[in-house]
Design a protein that fits this description.
This protein has 120 residues and is of the alpha+beta class. 40% of the residues lie in helices and 38% in strands. It has helices at residues 2-27, 33-38, 59-74; strands at residues 43-48, 51-56, 77-91, 94-105, 113-119.
Length: 120
Amino acid sequence: MAQEKTSIENRINQFFTAYEKRYADALAGSIDVESTAAVFADSFIEANPFGVQAGKNDEELRKVIPQGMDFYRKIGTKSMEVDTVSITTLDPLHYLAKVHWRATYAPKNKEELVIRFDVI
């Protein structure tokens, strides 16, 4: 069982390493829309301080992925890096990942800013 858990944890860590790389590539101007969309389920839920909404993995999602990255570049996003991933086993088939991110921004005519935040 311990070996199985380690394998799952490795896969989860690899997922976020790949996510971080796709984000960096997108900030540099190379957006892989298909690989980004591929990490979403057919239907998914997004929650943020403004509310909760359901989304679909469809052409509309593929259309907004580049728009989202354009927005992040416009506000001065320079990098989005994973600091740590904490994994909690919920049951043998489900895991909760708490990802601690470090975002670096360099808005025009302003000092560089680092924001650290968690996503679960």
